[in-house]
Amino acid sequence: MDIRPESRWFKSSYSGGSGTECVECNHVADRLRVRDSKRVDGPVVAVRIQTWRAFVRAL
Predict the structure, then answer these.
(1) Are residues 37 and 23 in contact, defined by beta-carbon separation less than 8 angstroms?
(2) Is 37 a residue whose pLDDT tops 50?
């Protein structure tokens, strides 16, 4: 069970701002979490921060 406090979800600065945003992210401990901004109660993908950074660098 995850008892850590919820951090604030944020949208990408590349999102259009017209309600069509695709994803939101937040940081919890050593994880970056990603979810569909239109389904906030839906599934969440969590990856280690180091893994996310390596992914972004590879892009």
Answers:
(1) yes
(2) yes
Nearest by Cα to 22 from 1, 2, 4, 45: 45
- pLDDT reported for residue 19: 64
Domain borders along the chain are 10-58
Smallest CA-to-CA distance from 34 within 43, 42, 25 is with 25
12 band by pLDDT with thresholds 50, 70 and 90: confident
Instruction: Kindly list the strands in the beta sheet with 31-36, ordered across the sheet, starting from the edge strand earlier in the chain.
Output: 10-11, 23-28, 31-36, 44-48
Can you give the pTM of this predicted structure?
A: 0.69
Residue pair 43/58 in contact by the 8 Å Cβ criterion = no
